[in-house]
Amino acid sequence: MSGEQESEAKKPKDISELPGVGATTAEKLVQAGYATIEAIAVATPMEIAQATGIPLQTAQRIVDAARAALDIRFKTALELKKERMTIRKITTSSKALDDLLGGGIETKQITEFFGEFGTGKTQICHQLAVNVQLPDDKGGLGAKAVYIDTEGTFRWERIEQIARGLNLDPDQVMDNIYWVRAINSHHQMAIVDQLFSLMSKDNIRLVVVDSLTSHFRAEFPGRENLASRQQLLNRHLHQLLRLAEVYDAAVIVTNQVMARPDVFYGDPTAAVGGNVVAHAPGVRVQLKKSRGNKRIARVVDAPHLPEGEAVFVITEYGIRDAEEE
Ligand code: GTP
Ligand code: MG
To answer: Which of 44, 156, 166, 272 lies 20 to 30 A from 127 at CA?
Structure first.
């Protein structure tokens, strides 16, 4: 580490140190959601120019500088393999869904569940807040959960039922879930910032954000706000990913998408089916309703997972395999 830090000595550490970025420009960038060198480095100059009003040429120079400042470090294939082997998994309580996910919800990673209302996104979040507490040999991590609730749909009663379904002591299980209501997108991001210190003091290995997108959609409606919304969401996702990596935790986010995108004309991200977070790292799972309490899960854009679908059911005691009913 020390060797790396020496060679980094002259590199800009935050956006105000990038060449050509004065106080006013820095302020514009931050307000548009480009608060870090990483956020700028992965953006296009056009996007930044549009979101901030900075001239395109200047934006181009800033992006170039941010890319130059980023550390590009090669890893060997063996290092990749070793990193991969440290990833842990949490069971969903459905063998079919676990199999679809390559063994369960992974740590060091963001898993997104998206689908229409009532497809079971919130139910899966509740189930995992309980399951992360299970011991290793039962598919858990023996750890606690944080539940960031943006829509007010968290139910402790449901946690009780799910805990009973696993023969766990409901009070003890509820005592290991930290709930917080996020009142707007800004608050939602501030909560994640705070989690960095909370997680270092406590054994928290699951962070749920249910829903990731509702506040952002409500606060930045329509096409004209799309660039700003995207930038903030990207920043939020990068915060969450860092949290997952630093604390070897699983992060689950939900995202409601509409069945009839034509109704939401003017919101191009709705029209392409939840693409609002499409470029974020992680595993994306689409949920669909089937007959009765049956639900169908499908993993999208995940080259490391086999294609296919899993059928599960939502029961009184939580998520289960369909045939267990
Ligand atoms: P939105 O947040 O509206 O987008 O939906 P969602 O995808 O989060 O849906 P949610 O997870 O809330 O799923 C709702 C479905 O779960 C209901 O239609 C019920 O079928 C089922 N469900 C919820 N609570 C219970 C319960 O206590 N018992 C049983 N048996 N099923 C439940
Ligand atoms: Mg929900």
So the answer is: 272
Residues comprising the chain, all counted: 325
Equal CATH topology for 3-69 and 83-324: no
How many Å apart are CA 133 and CA 205, to the nearest integer? 9
Atom index in ligand 1 nearest the CA of residue 116 equals 4
- Give residues whose Cβ lies within 5 Å of ion ligand 2: 121-122, 153
Any atom of ligand 1 within 6 Å of the Cβ of 8: no
**Candidate CATH numbers 1.10.150.20, 3.40.50.1000, 3.40.50.1440, 3.40.30.10; the one for domain 3-69:** 1.10.150.20
Distance 14 CA to ligand 2 centre (A): 37
CA dihedral 227, 233, 235, 238 (to 10 degrees): -140
Question: Of the bound ligands, which one is closest to the alpha carbon of residue 164?
Answer: 1
d(CA 165, CA 135): 16
Residue 87 has pLDDT above 50, yes or no: yes
More confident residue, 18 or 263: 18
Work out the average pLDDT over 136-141: 97
In this prediction, residue 324 carries a pLDDT of 54
Locate the domains of the chain by residue range.
3-69, 83-324
User: How do residues 283-308 score in pLDDT, each as one tens digit?
Assistant: 999 999 999 999 999 998 777 787 78
Cis amide prior to 7 (ω within 30 degrees): no
Q: State the amino acid at position 26 in one-letter form.
A: A
Of the bound ligands, which one is closest to the alpha carbon of residue 114? 1
DSSP 235-297: HHHHHHHHHHHHTT-EEEEEEE--S-GGGGTT-HHHHTTSGGGTTSSSEEEEEEE-STTEEEE
Indicate if ligand 1 lies below 6 Å from the C-beta of 325: no
CB 100 within 8 Å of CB 297: yes
Specify the CATH superfamily of domain 83-324: P-loop containing nucleotide triphosphate hydrolases (3.40.50.300)
